[in-house]
């Protein structure tokens, strides 16, 4: 290709196709760079072939120039997406497992929210200060609720049920 001019376009295939002429060489690193899924790649290949462009895949050195090369490109792209990408169901399961692991790590050995709320309400009903109420919430557990976290969860409704308010002057000293 010495002496020839190349157009470089990253991420905008539509703009490139508008300015390209039949017979020009379109170089991509890999076929899957043309789309996020197999149907997207095949649609892009169809547009490229309609314009009469020659597609060159840099990774493998294969050229796709006419309608007979389309199925070969489809098979290559299908192989990539089947081997390397997550299916929707696997991605959803991974997300759920990750969320469950994050929840367990955040709440490791800490009083469950309903127990924390119940202990807080009992302590406040007995006239406890904020420090005393938090001591009652955390008693017997290795992980501790902080005052700020407890109040944020109470404000956001994550503790389930009503949380009693401290009497005036019972707030922690800043």
Give an overview of the whole structure.
The protein has 174 residues and is mainly α. It folds into two domains: 13-84, Resolvase, N-terminal catalytic domain (Rossmann fold); 100-174, no CATH class. It is built from seven helices and three strands. The chain has helices spanning 13-19, 38-50, 70-84, 88-106, 113-125, 130-138, 147-155; strands at 25-28, 54-57, 62-64. Strands 1-2-3 form a three-stranded mixed beta sheet, covered by helices on one side. Helix 2 (38-50) runs antiparallel to helix 3.
Spatial sequence of strands, sheet with the most strands: 1-2-3
Report the order of strands and helices: HEHEEHHHHH
Percentage of residues in helical conformation: 40-55%
The coarse silhouette is: rod-shaped
Span of the ends, CA to CA? 72 Å
Total discrete domains: 2
- The chain-level mean pLDDT equals 79
Portion of residues in beta strands equals 5-15%
How many β-strand runs?
3
Structural class: mainly alpha
| Radius of gyration from CA coordinates | 31 Å
Poorly predicted ranges = none
Main β sheet profile: 3 strands, mixed
Number of helices: 7
List the helices and strands and how they pair.
Blueprint: H1 13-19, E1 25-28, H2 38-50, E2 54-57, E3 62-64, H3 70-84, H4 88-106, H5 113-125, H6 130-138, H7 147-155
Parallel strand pairs: 1-2
Antiparallel strand pairs: 2-3
Helix pairs in contact: 2-3, 5-6
